[in-house]
């Protein structure tokens, strides 16, 4: 993956994208491109997520504590391949856990009972 990857335009770190792609058995470039498509779709949905889900902001990134139905709907709306849909969801979960862990100064923070959506706060604020 290069510095001009799709992950540069999303809230998902390249390292997270590559690790999840490897874990899920998908190409990192395919996952990065799909993350970019999902990020573009999420731009229109921030206000919906803010109304429907709890959220927190960590290091300029918004984490919405969405549920599985939100991801199922997003995957369906975007007609995502099932393996890429799973990898995208897992990348968001991994990024949320990483941000929460970093914010807890090394104390492990778990993402429980939810499927978080991660978005740059600048984008979330602009869409309100």
Distance between the termini: 33 Å
How much helicity do the residues have? Answer: 55-70%
Using the CA coordinates, give the radius of gyration: 13 Å
Q: Give the number of DSSP strands.
A: 3
Which word captures the global form? Answer: globular
Helix-strand pattern: HHHEEHHEH
> How many helices?
6
Mean pLDDT: 82
| Strand order of the biggest β-sheet | 1-2-3
Unreliable spans: none
Proportion of residues in extended strands: 5-15%
Please describe what this structure looks like.
- The chain is mainly α and 128 residues long.
- The chain is 56% helix and 9% strand.
- It has helices spanning 14-24, 28-43, 46-52, 68-77, 82-103, 121-126; strands spanning 55-58, 61-64, 117-120.
- It has a three-stranded antiparallel beta sheet, with helices on both faces.
- A hairpin with a 2-residue loop joins strand 1 (55-58) and strand 2.
- Helix 1 (14-24) crosses helix 5 (82-103) and helix 2 (28-43) crosses helix 5.
- The radius of gyration is 13 Å and the shape is globular.
- The N and C termini lie far apart (33 Å).
- The relative contact order is 0.19.
- The model has no long low-confidence stretch (mean pLDDT 82).
């Amino acid at each position: 993956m290069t510095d001009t990857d799709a992950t540069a335009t999303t809230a998902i770190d390249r390292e997270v994208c590559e690790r999840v792609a490897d874990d899920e058995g998908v190409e990192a470039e395919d996952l990065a491109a799909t993350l970019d498509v999902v990020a573009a779709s999420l731009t229109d949905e921030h206000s919906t997520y803010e109304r429907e889900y709890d959220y927190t902001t960590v290091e300029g990134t918004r984490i919405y504590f969405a549920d599985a139905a939100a991801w199922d709907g997003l995957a369906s709306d975007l007609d995502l391949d099932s393996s890429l849909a799973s990898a995208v969801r897992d990348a968001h979960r991994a990024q949320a856990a990483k941000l929460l862990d970093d914010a807890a100064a090394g104390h492990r923070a778990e993402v429980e009972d939810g499927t978080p959506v991660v978005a740059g706060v600048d984008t979330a604020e602009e869409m309100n």
